[in-house]
Amino acid sequence: MCGITGYIGHREAYPIVINGLKRLEYRGYDSAGIMIYDGKNIQLSKTKGKVSDLESITNASPTKKVGKIGIGHTRWATHGVPNDVNSHPHFSQSGNLVIVHNGIIENYDTLRKELISRGYTFKSDTDTEVLVNLIEEVKKQEGCKLGKAVQLALNNVIGAYAIAVFDKTKPNEVVVARLGSPIAIGVGKNESEFFIASDASPFLEYTKDVVYLEDEELAIIKLGRAIKVRKIKDDSLVDPNIQELKMNLEEIEKGGYEHFMLKEIYEQPKAIIDTYRGRMLPDSGIIKMAGVDDNLNKFLNAERIIIIACGTSWHAGLVGEYLIEDMARIPVEVEYASEFRYRNPIITNKDVVIAISQSGETADTLAAIKLAKSKGAFVFGICNVVGSSIARETHAGAYTHAGPEIGVASTKAFTTQITVLSLISLKLAKSKGTLSDSAFRMYLQKLQLVPNSVEQLLKIDEKVKEIANHYKNATNCLYLGRGFNFPVALEGALKLKEISYIHAEGYPAAEMKHGPIALIDENMPVFVIATNKGHYEKVVSNIQEIKSRAGKIIAVVTEGDVTVKEIADHVIEIPETEEALTPLLTTIPFQLLSYHIAVLLGKNVDQPRNLAKSVTVE
Ligand code: AGP
To answer: Does ligand 1 come within 6 angstroms of the Cβ of 92?
Structure first.
């Protein structure tokens, strides 16, 4: 996720754009840039780092701040590590076109090769620079205006985008377009000025009249003239729907949600899609992951895979163990990085280590990686922050594309980590022949259905809120799961602990009889995952054992379940999927449950006490 913003009108553009970028830093903050058109020349400043670093650069060159047209960008890298050259805005080869982009162009490599064959050269590693040169090439070939060139070019693009494009040769307009990433256009009085942004927060103080572009729409913004909105597919005109903004600044930054955590829970369908986009091709039955493909033999010949992580990422690693062993039959061990780094582990060059980290900065995980590398292991990283320390320290890796995760309690990072681990497990299983082609293709089809299932599942929010109200005053809770859902039980307990401060423990359901069942009485809520293919009958027995001791059962079951419905106190139904993929769904009710209990208890959901989003110290 990145933030884009722009201005065209009678005011000085710089302060509007630079302050707008500050408002959008929650969307990404690894690099930033700004273009100001001074009536004659394009003044471009960009840098790795935050908007404040960009401001230091522009303050040193005041002439770069003068002009009434500007576009800016604050980056969350997806292609190309964060550095000055990969920062946006990007010029086209002629220097006439300038673009800022939020999204991922999946077919950028093919487009880039085609443009190189036509004499284009590239300065950066970004998909965005490919896009602006594609627009330039179309403009040149068709002899058309910018708006038409953007429309034609985007019909050759696969992926997600929100773009703003400026043409120095036609300096009284800006063209914007979107597919899958948001764009809001602020409309000034009498079309005397226009504001562009990823959300309305940068221009809320200037105008409350806004046009939210719909997917596959393009807008030509020209001073003194009503916005022209067109369909990218066929260039047909669309009536711009100018609406009055009702949200305040804080509401806009949270996308209208009360907390970042809730926003990020609801972002999971898109985050999962963005994570498998371009990597999973169900129709052709292929999984493409450069970091794995380039090191496939290391994985296939590994004597074992050691997964190291902390917290929620460790729980995702545990799901990974079940997936890889079940599908690819490669031995896996999962270790807390904080333990691994100090216990003098046996590591050889026959080991593959997978390090999982949302922030890419967790000190224990980073130290464990260095230890593994020092002993000859190949280390593969799964991170959410491009160019983070862990991403740079590992030999190879795969990014989750969850976008910035602001809430301390990790949610979309967990489901996107499991998505990457599912892709790796399936790819290794296919390569080893431990999974038939038909089973492999079935899994790809089922994985492609997960985002929609999550979308459907999020409709249980109100029901979960009612359950939360029942149990918000509990002092202890148990979470139980088996198989692939044992790690989800651990994760559910962690979510509750870290934001509501209620003590909770996750356990393998079968372990109850080895001690924890002594805890059961009418004051002990027990959250149990009882999906229909996950040792169902055994879990039902576990539930009956608890009910017979007056325990309270809140069960997560597969849609259509009847047995558990008769014995549990509350039931939350999830859509059916393959058991190995159920963690992507069963975790959602527990995320919502912990969120609502914490809100009902008046806790600081996004920044719970004693915790930091990234534990960069021991
Ligand atoms: C999970 O909700 C917590 N925020 C915490 O356990 C977190 O998962 C852990 O600190 C690891 O962080 P990382 O994924 O950034 O390495």
So the answer is: no
Please give the helix or strand (H or E) that residue 435 lies within, else none: none
337-371 tens-digit pLDDT: 999 999 999 999 999 999 999 999 898 999 999 99
Specify the pLDDT at position 493.
98
Element containing residue 335 per DSSP (H, E): strand 332-336
Give yes or no for residue 614 CB within 6 A of ligand 1.
Answer: yes
Q: Residue 103: how many CB atoms within 10 A of its CB?
A: 23
Least confident among 253-262, 362-371, 504-513: 253-262
Q: What DSSP character marks residue 276?
A: H
Alpha-carbon distances, residue 521 vs 263, 518, 548, 551, 610 (angstroms):
35, 8, 10, 5, 31
- How close is the Cα of 319 to the center of ligand 1, in Å? 16
From the CA of 313, how far away is ligand 1's center (Å)?
6
Q: Comparing 62 with 593, which gets the higher pLDDT?
A: 593
Q: Which residues are designated catalytic?
A: 2, 613
Residues whose CB is less than 8 angstroms from the CB of residue 613 and which lie 6 or more positions away in sequence, other chains included: 359, 405, 406, 407, 408
Residue of 259, 334, 362 best suited for mutating to test ligand 1, as the one with most atoms within 8 Å of CB: 362
456/381 Cα distance (integer angstroms): 31
Nearest residue to 395 (alpha-carbon basis) of 279, 291, 542: 291
Which pTM does this prediction carry? 0.80
Choice among 81-90, 135-144, 587-596 with the minimum mean pLDDT = 81-90
Q: Is residue 250 predicted with pLDDT exceeding 90?
A: no
Those residues whose C-beta lies under 8 Å from the C-beta of residue 20, and which sit 6 or more positions away, are 5, 7, 72, 195, 197, 201, 202, 203
- d(CA 60, CA 57) in angstroms, rounded, equals 5
- Identify whether the C-beta of residue 229 lies closer than 8 Å to the C-beta of residue 238: yes
Neighbouring CB atoms inside 10 A of 294's CB total: 11
Pocket mutation for ligand 1, best pick of 261, 359, 604 (most atoms within 8 Å of C-beta): 359
Query: Are 138 and 118 contacting, i.e. CB atoms less than 8 angstroms apart?
Result: no
Q: How far is the CA of 409 from the centre of ligand 1 (A)?
A: 7
Cα 365 to ligand 1 centre (Å): 10
Contacts of 597 (CB under 8 A, 6+ apart): 468, 471, 472, 496, 500, 502
Q: Are 317 and 307 in contact (CB under 8 A)?
A: yes
Q: How far apart are CA 599 and CA 590, in angstroms?
A: 14
